[in-house]
Each structure stands twice: as C-alpha cells, then as structure tokens.
Write a structure and sequence with these properties.
Elements: H1 3-19, H2 37-40, E1 45-48, E2 51-53, E3 62-66, E4 69-73, H3 82-92, E5 100-104, H4 110-113, H5 116-120, E6 126-129, H6 131-141, E7 150-151, E8 157-160, E9 163-169, E10 178-186, E11 189-195, H7 206-220, E12 227-229, H8 243-251, H9 264-285
Parallel strand pairs: 4-5, 5-6, 6-7, 11-12
Antiparallel strand pairs: 1-2, 2-3, 3-4, 8-9, 9-10, 10-11
Helix pairs in contact: 1-3, 7-9
C-alpha cells in the first residue's frame, strides 16, 4: 500500500474509533480491475469553485460546496479501504467530511451506493435517492441496504445555503436513475451544468430503450447547458478528452484560457452520439 492510501486508512480508522461505531457489513463484493483500489486510486481535484472530484479511476464521486455545508454525490464501493479513501480525498482538498449535510445516490448500482452504510456510521447527513433504486438496493442487499432518509422524485429540488440542485428522473440505466441540473462557478462566473446519473441504457426491453431515447432527446433540447459532469471517466463524445484528460488541461490552464469543462458544443455532440447508439440498440431489440 502506498503512503497516500496508508494515510487515508489511518484517517478513517481514527475517525471510526472516535465515533465508537463499526460499519455495517454488506454481502461481499468481488475485486476486479475496475474496483481494485490499488489500481483505481486517483488524486482528488477541484473542478469548479464549488465542485470537487473525489472518486476513483473508474467511478466519479463529487462534493458540492455550499455556503452552509457540503453535498456528497455517490459513495463509491463498499470494498476494504474505500470509506477511508473517500474521506481522505475530501480532507486532502481542504474540506471537512463532517460538514456533509446531504448524500445523494444517483443510481442503484453498487459502485455508486456501496459506501453508504459505512458513511452513515460516521456522517451526520441525510441520504437520498429515488424510491425505485432504493428498491433495487434492497433486492440486491436485503437488510444491508443503506438506510434512506428521503426519496427523490422528478422535479424535486434541494437547496442548501446558496446552492440549489434540481432533480430529474431519467430511468434506463436503472429504474430510478436520477440526474441533476445545477450551477457551477469558475472564478465566480456561473455556468449551467447537467449531471446525468446513468447515461447508458441497461435493458433489452424496447419500451425502456425508447423511453431512454425520448428523455435524451428532451435533454438535448436544453439550450442553456454549458457543462457536462460525468459519473464515469469515459462518458464523453468521440475524440474529446475524458475526465482525467480534462483534469490535466485544467491543471495546465493559463490566465485567460477557457475552462476545459465549459463546452456546450461537446454536451450536445455527446448526446447526439448517445442517441444514435441507443437507437441502434432499439433496432436490435425489436
């Protein structure tokens, strides 16, 4: 284990001892190249004034900073080391994990909600997700499914301090996939952003696929979106940089250079490509 992972482990171990609790143990998960933390660990980084990447090489988890606390988006895996890794990443960015007021789970797949039970033992936060995806978690984990404080429905919003998240129900990847419309800031300049919670259909049901296409077409009509936020590193238009390619560009950005995430043309090109791919899936399914 490298020194960075050791430090993260120590931070969370001390935090768990301090709270005097032990995390609930869910059914065991298999380690694969996509979730092996020794392979997938990445340095966290600030994306915008109010948005921070705290995920791994495969899966994105983000912290939104507001004037009255933090909002955590997705909780990564439940494998050994992940809770301390996530908390360590947040601390490394100069943020206090104990300031997290809300945890939003955007989809009911284990790589997005697996860390929730352990985090509930540590954080004094409200956890929210869509009810259909909570049911998916229960079907997968039974009694070990994370406790949820509130269900998110299409059209709901969440305001914390100076920040409002607007939620949309965008099923297809999972039945309850939730997406977020929000504003991010670059040196104080506001930019409307769209964060799709599951931009790849995971069903061979033609009705589900068609609904997914129609929803993508609706999103593609949004003319004000200037930023795409991705929950997996490789969600981008063909030929465009991935999450870490953009991060490298951001790190090398000079005065007056554009922000690599502010790219409305990319947002719509990505959607055009995704719609075309999904239409082919629909044709194959019929």
């Amino acid at each position: 284990m490298n020194l960075r992972l050791m430090s993260h482990t120590l931070i969370a171990a001390l935090l768990v001892l301090w709270t005097g609790v032990a995390a609930t143990q869910p059914p065991p998960a298999r380690i694969s190249p996509r979730n092996d933390l020794s392979v997938m660990a990445r340095e966290p980084f600030q994306v915008f004034d109010n948005l921070y990447f705290v995920g791994i090489g495969e899966v994105g988890s983000y912290v939104i900073e507001t004037s009255e606390g933090l909002i955590l988006i997705d909780t990564l895996w439940d494998l050994d080391g992940y809770t301390e890794y996530l908390l360590g990443n947040i601390r490394e960015l100069g943020l206090d994990p104990m300031a997290i007021e809300y945890v939003i789970i955007m989809q009911g797949h284990r790589d997005h909600y697996g860390g929730a039970p352990a985090l509930r033992e540590i954080l004094d936060a409200q956890f929210g997700t869509h009810e259909e995806d909570y049911n998916l978690m229960v079907s997968d984990w039974g009694e070990y499914a994370p406790e949820i404080d509130f269900f998110i429905e299409d059209g709901d919003s969440l305001t914390l301090g100076d920040t409002t998240l607007n939620f949309e129900h965008t099923p297809g990847h999972t039945p309850g996939t939730t997406s977020i419309r929000m504003t991010v800031y670059d040196n104080g300049m506001p930019y409307p952003a769209y964060f799709h919670g599951g931009p790849a259909v995971r069903s061979d049901d033609p009705e589900v696929i068609l609904q997914f296409i129609q929803d993508l077409e609706r999103i593609n009509q949004l003319n004000d979106v200037q930023v795409q936020i991705a929950n997996h590193f490789d969600i981008h238009a063909q030929g465009a940089p991935d999450t870490f390619g953009r991060a490298a560009m951001l790190a090398e950005r000079g005065p007056g250079d554009p922000h690599p995430w502010v790219d409305p043309d990319h947002f719509h090109r990505w959607l055009d490509e995704l719609i075309a791919e999904t239409r082919q899936m629909l044709a194959d399914a019929q």
